[in-house]
Prior knowledge:
It contains 3 helices and 4 strands; from the N terminus they run ααββαββ. The protein has helices at residues 2-7, 13-37, 59-67, and strands at residues 42-46, 55-56, 71-75, 82-83.
Amino acid sequence: MRGAKVSEDGLSRPTADAMGMLATVMNALVLVAAIEHCGASARAMSALIMPQVCETYERQSALRHLEENRIIASQAALEIHILQPTPRRSCAPPKWNATPC
């Protein structure tokens, strides 16, 4: 939906869609950092191949992570967003020191 909206402003639809998928990867990286801050193990997995940033989604790898009690944050055109093997305790999110641009 966002790709369609951005493409109305002059950007090609494929470029807008790719930008949206990259944004979901960035969100997953922040999510994994927050989960690990709470003391749980987590991995980011993506349908886009970018091994320097996160693991490429492969079913067997995902199952192995779940067997090892890791939480998986998946993104970039994957339908499943968070896979959690067991209930975890809740914790407050980390306080990020962000400065406005």
